[in-house]
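Input (structure):
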């Protein structure tokens, strides 16, 4: 659906009063925002920015209906933050919001890294990059660790070719594609400083904070619940201690590390049951206990 068609479909004529409440209900942008609140713990500043962007786009749509056109808004974004802070999940919700408001035709997300865009020999990069862009058209292209596209220390690197193709599409086809660049904040700042053409095309910069201990525990309980498990009171206490210890260690990746820890806890739970009693009721089959958590090598130190 094009922007012009969306304005016609939503049924206002230039000069009329626009019922913003009705427009909001018709586009149903409240649903993906509510899903974000439900599915993601914490991230209050990120959720607020998404609400602001959604409100801006809704009002932009209303302005078009009364003849106040100002051209298609620039919607390319940068998501910065540490691993496991929900950047890909938020990108999915943003694609949904943009589709509901008529800013992208399909509302799908294509997530890629440097390896999907950059070739290893002359003539390989352009076809790879263009194929990714073809798949992403009508939706959102999410490029994780985007700074790896730029490697000035390597004169034979082809990342700059991919950047130049991206820049052209971000400018000339911005009505049919939204690009989200993601990665660590400091490295993204360096990337933008080295590529001012990229920075000038990115309108929205959203920083994803790390989760605190309480939020990580809430994420753990949500994850086990989604898998039809539960933490016993002792396991919950052990998980709280695990979080404190794990955060001090290298390679901590927020919710991703918690998910990995719970995957291993479920393996230990299964081994404990198989090596123990032959009888297991529903309660036993779904309850992760402290020993399943404390067997982690995180506690060895």
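Output (sequence):
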């Amino acid at each position: 659906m094009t922007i012009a068609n969306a304005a016609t479909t939503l049924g206002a004529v230039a000069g009329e009063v626009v019922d913003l409440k009705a427009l909001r209900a018709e586009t149903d942008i409240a649903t993906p925002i509510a899903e974000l609140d439900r599915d993601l713990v914490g991230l209050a500043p990120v959720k607020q920015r998404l609400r602001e962007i959604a409100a801006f786009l809704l009002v932009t749509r209303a302005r078009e209906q009364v003849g106040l056109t100002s051209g298609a808004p620039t919607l390319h974004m940068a998501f910065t933050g540490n691993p496991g802070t929900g950047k890909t999940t938020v990108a999915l919700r943003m694609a949904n919001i943009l589709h509901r408001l008529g800013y992208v035709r399909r509302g799908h997300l294509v997530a890629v890294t440097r390896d999907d865009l950059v070739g290893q020999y002359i003539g390989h990069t352009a076809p790879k990059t263009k194929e990714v862009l073809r798949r992403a058209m009508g939706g959102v292209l999410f490029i994780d660790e985007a700074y790896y596209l730029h490697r000035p220390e390597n004169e034979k690197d082809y990342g700059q070719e991919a950047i130049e193709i991206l820049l052209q599409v971000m400018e000339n086809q911005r009505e049919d594609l939204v690009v989200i660049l993601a990665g660590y904040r400091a490295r993204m700042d360096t990337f933008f400083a080295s590529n001012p053409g990229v920075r000038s095309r990115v309108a929205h910069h959203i920083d994803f904070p790390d989760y605190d201990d309480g939020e990580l525990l809430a994420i753990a309980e949500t994850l086990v619940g989604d898998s039809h498990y539960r933490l016993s009171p002792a396991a919950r206490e052990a998980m709280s201690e695990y979080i404190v210890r794990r955060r001090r260690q290298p390679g901590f990746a927020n919710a991703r590390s918690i998910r990995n820890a719970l995957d291993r806890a479920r393996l230990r739970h299964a081994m404990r049951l198989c090596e123990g009693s032959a009888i297991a009721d529903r309660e036993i089959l779904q309850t992760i206990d402290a020993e399943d958590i404390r067997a982690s090598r995180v506690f060895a130190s």
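Notes: The beta strands are 77-81, 109-112, 140-144, 178-183, 204-208, 230-231, 287-288. The first strand starts at residue 77 and ends at 81.
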